[in-house]
Amino acid sequence: MTPPPISVAEAMTPVAKPGDSKINRDLLGVMEGVSVGWLVLLHLAVGTVIAAGAVWVYQVYAGLGIAGYTHPVFWGVYIVTFVFWVGIAHAGTLISAILYLFRAKWRNAINRGAEAMTVFAVLTAAQFLGIHVGRMWKSYFILPYPNQRGLWVNFRSPLEWDTFAISTYATISIVFFFIGLIPDLAIARDRATGLRKLIYTALALGWQGTSRQWKAHSRSVLHLSGLATPLVLSVHSVVSWDFAMSIVPGWHATIFAPYFVAGAIFSGFAMVLTVMIPFRRIYGLEEYITDYHFENMTRFLLLTSWIVGYAYGIEYFIAWYSGVEAEQTSFWLRLTGPYWFSTWTMIVCNVVFPQVFWFKQARTHLPTIFIVSTFINIGMWFERYVIIITSLSREYDPAVWNIYTPSWPELVIFAGSFGFFAQFILLFIKGAPFIAIAEVKELAIHERAHAKQGAH
Amino acid sequence: MPEIARRDFLKLVGVGASGAAAAGCAEKVEQLIPYVVQPEEITPGNAVYYASSCTECSVGCGIVVKTREGRPIKLEGNPENPINKGKLCSKAQASVGRTYSPDRHKGPMKRDANGALQPIAWADAIAEVAAAVRANPAGTAVLGGDPGATAGDVIAQIVAALGAKSATYMPFSGESLREATRLVFGVASEPIFDLSGADLIVDFGAESLESGPSPVEHQRQWAEARDIDAHSHDGGARLVYVGSRLSLTASSSDQWLAARPGSEGILALALARAVVAAQGAESPNAALASGALAGFDADSAAAATDVPAETITKLGGALAKAKSAVALPPGVAVTSRKAVGANAAVLVLNQVLGAVGRSVTVPAEVANAKSRAKYRDVIALVEQMKAGAISVLIVHDSNPVYSLPKGVGFADALAKVPLVVSLATAADETSAKAHLVLPNHAPLESWGDVRPHSGVRGVMQPAFSPLYDTKAAADTLLEIARAAGAAVPTGTFQSLVNAAWADTDSRAALQRGGVFEAATPAANAVFDASKVDAAAPELAGGGDMTVLAFPHIALGDGRGASLGLLQEIPDAVTHVLWESWAEISLAAAARLGVENGDILKVATAAGEIEVAAFVRGGIRDDVIAIPTGQGHTVGLFASKENDGLPGTPRGVNVADLLAGTTDEAGGQAWLTEKASVSNTGRHRRLPMLQFSDNKRGRQLGEVMTLAALNGHDEHHGDDHHGSHEIIKEYDPADDAADAEYAATFQARGEKSVKESPYRWGMTVDLDKCTGCSACITACYVENNIPVVGEAEIRMVRPMTWLRIDRWIGDGFTDFGNEMGRIQIAPSTEKLGEVDVRNAPIMCQQCGAAPCEPVCPVIATYHNEEGLNGMIYNRCIGTRYCANNCPYKVRRFNYYDNQITKWPTPMELGLNPDVTVRGQGVMEKCTFCVQRIQGARQEAKNARGVDAQIADGAVQTACQQTCPSNAIAFGNLRDDASAVSQKADSKRGYHALHVLNTRPAVTYLSKVVRGPAV
Amino acid sequence: MAELVGIYDAPGDVAAAAKRLKARGFTDLEIYSPAAFPELDDAIDEKPSKVRIFTLVGGLIGVVSGYALAIWTSYDWPVMIGGKPFAAIPTYTIIGFELTILFGGLATLIGLLVVGGLPYGTFGKHDAAYSPRFSAEELGLAVCCKDRDVPEVDALLRAHHAKEVNLVPAE
User: Could you tell me if B769 lies within 8 Å of chain A, comparing CB atoms?
Assistant: First the structure.
């Protein structure tokens, strides 16, 4: 046969070294090495988890009595904190799914972090379902499994809906999260060595980034977004029905579903900001997470703050307009009763403070954003506290009206939930790209290509 | 050894004890006659009933002891007993717990050198006492309470034979009344007051519905005398209450005259004079007006009593007009130094009203503890003890170290006695100071009898073999006397009881619980008002507030405090429990700058105590009222031992404020001190279970006027008319949920499931409920409800299935400034006004129960008979059901009560028919479903598998014991049943009916009859 | 046989090259890309992705099983609850909805794995052509051709601004 032409002979010289890029180096760099600060935080987080775990074991042994429950307030800080974390869990899916459907490309830099927080927040919330029941060792009764006693569950119960909604939400967010992660794991695989290489090789499932894989990948993300969008709206609606389906004055309201969803997005974005701002600062990722991102998110805060503010207002209006004395009493005592402090904290943190975001200076001034978003987290916890505790403490029979105050075990477990959440975030930062590299590249490569064509 | 004895007993029970075995030692057996027809041998699972008598107070109610496998588990009233006719009070209901009290002495014990009690053999102990007695018979003293009739006689004989000294001490003995009766009628007996058929009752602080002469009897008679169905036209009897605080009795009255405490006598005579005046010249008592009543014109009386002269005159007129008016004499709380005069005055009033012979019987004297009780003797004995003249003191059936007023100085006197012997059944302050403890049997283990008044003799027979190595007090004394060489009757105490009953058909007596005849009026009773004179009480001390030490309805003279159950029954007026409190008026509170729970310092000449304030509108400004019965330093529940503070008193003993002075008769006076009250600045939230008496106009405790009931003015009765409409539009019997249910099963060929003929329902007549709380106590005992203790109560976690909400009027809906308040609203009571609604709240067994749909695991559901079932095994404790229950009747087990809340041997008293609930599950009222199933079984056994449960065959525990018959229970689908009849009443309404929960409980509105004048 | 890989910076060039190559009959292609680019989706295979079928079927199974579970269990052992009907359809809608999402989502994941040839799927002879630089910021277009076609393919690749063209060493 004829020898191949020179050009091909040249071409035959094997590829010099695997190419690499700044984006890879920057974003994978986050995963390398551990700082003292990181270790301290991790120990703090794990420490609180261990403390909370010990208290919980004691509670299972001794009985729920160590919590501050009192007749007639049968739900306390545990349920409050459960709702709080479920709320936090909403930003991730919202950013990934809804903004994806709206083709809001600016999400690419933050969606990975947000999704991670979603998964971890749901896991945190799920703990409280077990913590708050009287016989957690029997809590599997709530699952509809076949048994020789022929017993089934009550699908009419909001708590049963809750079980389905939370478990579905957890599953879907994990799937969504993992699918988004595969290409980045492949990137890590190609650059890691030793044990890490093995792990990433396994996790990356042999991803090569062929056009077929990418096609299937983007279709999957599209369909999952389509599924997750109604899901994210439904989950907190279902949680809200844990209350709205009852006849308790202050709970029994039709506005609860949208009210809770808005609140969830509100608190979720606040938490994303609370985590992202220090993260970007510490790892110097200003060019990936830009002020533009923060400004957009603060706009969301402003919007949702108005929605919850409206909900607060409408609740009082309906209480007055309904003419139901029990409702009016319940709401009036929220403002002026024993829990006035919680109520006003909620209103100030959730409705008053966010108004600073009318001003661009505030929307782009990170310390302000950080402080306000932290206050929003506090305010949103108190919102659930107000809804649950004050309503229960002022029900239909004034003879048994009574005051609930949290006990120390509840507060320890409450603190533990933050440790539980934080430990996952910290480990994740080191375990996988906290910013979706592939999606960032998508933008970068496009820009470069256009620039080139411009040059031609 | 006690352990052995107990093991034997348990073994016998274990083998499904035969009657003989279960009832204990063989020689007793052939005399145990079951109250109902007894099967050949005890069948495990079948209850056996024994008739006996209650010894919690001296009224002498009959009881029926329900035993299972040989263990007493529940007391119910003896229907044949004319006094209580099958009903019981809280104290009696709880008293089954005495048998299983952890405080019980387990055998004879001797105090060793370092003050600890060590076991000792009976023989040695008795020999030791006998030696001491023989050494100095005259220096021997027997100090006792009420041991029962024959026991009392026997002990008297023993004391006489020994030539020893003796004194009988009963804190609430009512000596002044007997003395007054002697003054007025020449007979030193206690008159019997019969309220049935009365149309106007004046209660001069007798507290006739709670702690008076015969509370259960008087509640029943009062309820019958004003039964609205029988007296719909005029509403029946009116009750006028004279007293300084809105007590439980006052709460049920139609008119409250807030007279100065101690001025009852003056008021009575003034009323008598007004009556005579109204009766006119032909009055048989016209002479009195110029005689005994001369000094008691309305105006001077008004000045002395603080009751308007006009009211006195008008009430006198009403009394004169009344067909059958009766007046009840002053009670313990207002027994002042002038109590004899006051009691005599009330008797004179009764005479003037012509009540004597009609409603008031002056019976022949009978010998019983009351007739022997002489407080004066006790004082004398204490003086001798102080003088060192007493070398042996034997104490039985009383606890003088606790109950004698501080001023008497009994503790010091006791220290001077070389040998103190206590015959107490359970540890108390006195046996804690005794050198020898020779424990008596518990009441349900004892033979004996009671003789409350002429005509009534009740038996006491053991329903249980002695749990420990104990001996009847009388036997102990007999053996001591014999060993000391005294000539005392031969034989055991039991044989002496038999001898005492020889004149009767003792078998019949044992079956019926005694011999019951009408009281024989004293032949020699002659009315003579000449020696009667009422005067204001002489109060010691320079303080500005009168100390009113009133008997606690459940704890009584302190005996109740050792029963945890009675500690956990909230006082129906204040809803305070496990603690003492001091009631002061709003004005007094403002003056002192205190609110609920602030600690007050109360100081009298005799002593001082610190007690938490309870601020209320329903009490005179110049009175501070403190309940009796608390302040024990010994006892698992009586003291704070169960809270880890042994020796720490629970609450305060109000007797520590009293000098222990006597009335003219030598009886113990309670209204003797003025106190100076100050604010210590410290605060401790009172353990209480109701924080607001403001109903905010919700449908919880409804009333309707007599006019509205008779359809006179529709406007006035609108609301109640409305609630009547609710009944019309929804009849619980029409609850058809089970039709679809049955159809579903039928459709798949499971023919056994049929549409149920039952819809169990209940009616609660608020017009009859006094709030006495006997129902709550009965519910605890019947349903194994744990007593959670003060710590948990402070967390407001009672387990009670039944509570009584107490409302003042319809309430109001403005709030005032409530920032940070625990107490929702200050007491809305007003002095001299009565608008109290007691509303017992139990599970309403809703047809559309809000609790059911929210349970994720179907742990609570609806059964085909309309009951709202609760499946403990399925419950995982989400507590949503409790959140969603508008009546808030569900209770959650925060701890493992079945292990922690029944210290040994209390678990022996559990009802085997009712599951004991474990940690982490919800529980609530079941309408006593175990009783329904029992009745169903009986019906089947008697009349075949398809037999229906007859109306009245099922009585819930609360209904069974209610002294005023306020509760009816039965099948709403049977139109003939009593409960259906009542549920159709025009007064009927459903609690919170706006929620459309379709309750099976129908409340019957209280009827406002308006003041008597 | 030989395999050539063209290295590119712009997805548009890759798409154009692929189109041209297919037009010239070189159909054995594979594209490697560090990120998802819509223009590349149909460069090799115009047919719509099959993932959609997985999602649809999963969702349908979910909604049916959701209602079925709730309704069947409530008749399997009928219990009277709060005076509500045994099959309280409005409340069971929640269950139907949640299971729709759950099964649909899981089916989508399976769809991705199947269609995307994961895990560790193989793509004909192309596997050897993968290089870590494709998980950096460069795109690759791999072409299998007969030895004699190498020069033409090489030229074609370069004609669409390939930075370089490498001959994949056959192992």
Answer: no
Extended strands (E) in B788-872: 803-808, 836-841, 860-862, 868-870
Summarised one tens digit per residue, pLDDT across range B920-939 is 999 999 999 999 999 999 99
Q: For the domain made up of B703-1008, give the CATH fold.
A: Alpha-Beta Plaits (3.30.70)
Nearest to C80 among B738, B850, B851 (CB): B738
| CB contact A100 to C (< 8 Å) | no
Q: SS3 for B450?
A: strand
Measure the CA–CA gap between C20 and A292, rounded to whole angstroms. Answer: 40
* B854 and chain A in contact, CB less than 8 A: yes
What is the C-alpha to C-alpha distance for residues C140 and C127, in angstroms, rounded to an integer?
12
Pick the CATH number of B109-173+368-444+470-494 from 3.30.200.20, 3.40.50.740, 3.30.360.10, 3.30.300.180: 3.40.50.740
- pLDDT, averaged across chain A: 88
Domain B192-361, CATH number (from 2.40.50.320, 3.40.228.10, 3.40.50.720, 3.90.740.10): 3.40.228.10
CATH architecture of the domain B545-683 equals Beta Barrel (2.40)
List per-block mean pLDDT (blocks of 10 residues) for chain A, which spans 456 residues: 44 49 80 87 96 95 93 94 93 81 77 90 93 93 91 93 94 92 89 87 88 89 91 93 94 92 92 90 84 88 94 93 90 88 94 94 91 95 95 92 93 96 93 85 79 61
Q: Are B191 and B177 in contact (CB under 8 A)?
A: yes
Q: Which of B821, B882, B891 sits opposite A338 (nearest CB)?
A: B821
> Which of A74, A154, A403 is facing B879, going by the closest CB pair?
A74
ipTM of the complex: 0.91
For the beta sheet containing B109-111, the strands, ordered from the edge strand earlier in sequence to the opposite edge, are B117-119, B109-111, B436-437, B419-422, B392-396, B140-144, B165-168
Tell me the two tokens of residue B20. Answer: 């003989």
Nearest Cα to A278, choosing from A350, A204, A373, A195? Answer: A373
> What is the Cα–Cα distance from B563 to A300, expressed in whole angstroms?
63
Which residue from A19, A219, A227 is facing C52, i.e. has the nearest CB?
A: A219
Residue window 412-441, chain A: list those with CB within 8 Å of chain C: 438-439, 441
**What is the nearest CA distance from B885 to chain A, expressed in angstroms?**
8
Mind telling me how many Å the CA of A198 is from chain C's nearest CA?
14
Which chain A residues are closer than 8 Å to B850 by Cβ? 246-247
CB atoms within 10 A of CB B108: 22
Q: In angstroms, what separates the C-alpha of A320 from chain B's closest C-alpha? A: 14
CB contact under 8 A, B694 and A398: yes
Binary contact (A442, C36; C-beta < 8 A): yes
Residue ranges of domains in chain B = 109-173+368-444+470-494, 192-361, 545-683, 703-1008
* Cα distance between residue B228 and residue B235, in whole Å: 6
Closest CA relative to residue B552, chosen from B958, B62, B172, B961: B172
- Whole-Å CA distances, B987 to B687, B694, B702, B729, B764: 35, 22, 9, 15, 11
Element (H, E) at B923: strand B922-923
Give the pTM.
0.91
Asked if B461 and B52 count as a contact pair (C-beta separation under 8 A), the reply is: yes
